[in-house]
Amino acid sequence: MAANVLAMDSSEGNGGVRGSLGRVLTEIATERAAQDTLWGVQEFPDGTGPAWRDRADQARRECAEAASAGELTWRHVLAEEFYEALAEDAPERLRAELIQTAAVAVQWVQSLDRRSGAMSHRPPRHGGRTEKLVRDRIPEIIEAAGERPRTRIAGDREYLAFLRAKLYEEAGEYVSDRDPAELADLLEVVLALAAAHGIEPAGLERMRAAKAAERGGFTGRIVLRGPERDVPEQAPRMRHAVRAILLDDDGNLVLFHRVKPGRAPYWSTPGGKVEPEDAGPEAALRRELDEELGATVGPLRQVFAYSEQTLGLHYLSTFYLCRLTSLDLSRRHGPEFDDPSKGTYEVDRVPCTTAAVEAIDLFPAPLATYLRAHAQELPALLPE
């Protein structure tokens, strides 16, 4: 989700690569030459492989969680790439992951050089019911039209993320429709963002006027032309996770109650990443349930999915409804259960009702939204 900013530097001498990227790559080449001078050519075993897959999956979840909360950092992105590399043992895939890890590290250095750590917000695309911030009087307007709106109040932490998403929405509507009236909506969002930062309209206007006096406005219609360059398009890489909306014989949701150092307790569904050796998503989910719960389940039915995109990575999470047929926690296995820093994975059974789902902090947020709307219907949807 990092903003893609290219410095327009006309300097040569960076291996044919211009701008800040050329400078960083030159520094990296210099450091590599210094390492060879000091230590000589070094060769070590890779030390990577499937033992790191759980940690890679955890890094992916942490990255997606931070993105959903509007709190993505370079640390999250680099950690995900790093652990994805550690999880590979095939030389071709390991090399590809290491290149991607190095590329993210270079982008981070460029970001430091620009003295800009701001992350751009891209509203996630969800399956099922969606949520967005609306003007304060929209619910009563909907009611006046004879419909019943479903609303909630955004929390303090997510309010800024919703406003940033709204900024993109309103700007997109103006670009699409070219209707000057859309600029009023855009301005309303800008004023709300300013207020969230403690800036009143008059203060914002003073800031605007000061910048105009220093740098000018846009009435001159001046277009700054950068160097010509060919940038090959690359499709974002896919990360597919599968998770179980698991019901026991009493109709309760079988969830993990997660307690991790440094964050408030929350709940999540069992499941994990689809691995290359899995026969398919359903086979991957049955494997994950065996690893995490020592569990077997009946037939699976896909009922919900959502996707997110961050920094060239496309995350798809698919949720399957199924009934628990056996559970043996003594059979659960995986490094996450032996590492205190990863917290606890206590099995909790929560009534499959809207009220019960609303009473817990269920991750991810799109799943919580889906279950709040459809919890009562799920038992009838269980496949035979």
UniProtKB/TrEMBL annotation:
- Alphabetical keyword list: Hydrolase
Q: Where is the Nudix hydrolase domain?
A: 238-370
- Where does the signal peptide begin and end? none
Q: Which cofactor does it need?
A: Mg(2+)
Q: Which domain of life is it from?
A: Bacteria
CDD domains, per the entry: NTP-PPase_COG4997, NUDIX_Hydrolase
Residue ranges spanning the membrane: these are: none
Q: Does the keyword Hydrolase apply?
A: yes
Keyword Glycoprotein tagged: no
Which GO molecular function entries does the Swiss-Prot or TrEMBL record give?
hydrolase activity
By its UniProt entry, which InterPro entries does this protein fall under? MSMEG_1276-like_NTP-PPase_dom, NUDIX_hydrolase-like_dom_sf, NUDIX_hydrolase_dom
PANTHER family under this entry?
A: GDP-MANNOSE MANNOSYL HYDROLASE, MUTT_NUDIX FAMILY PROTEIN
Question: What is the name of this protein?
Answer: Predicted house-cleaning noncanonical NTP pyrophosphatase, all-alpha NTP-PPase (MazG) superfamily
Organism annotation = Thermomonospora echinospora
User: What does the organism's lineage look like at the top?
Assistant: Bacteria, Bacillati, Actinomycetota, Actinomycetes, Streptosporangiales
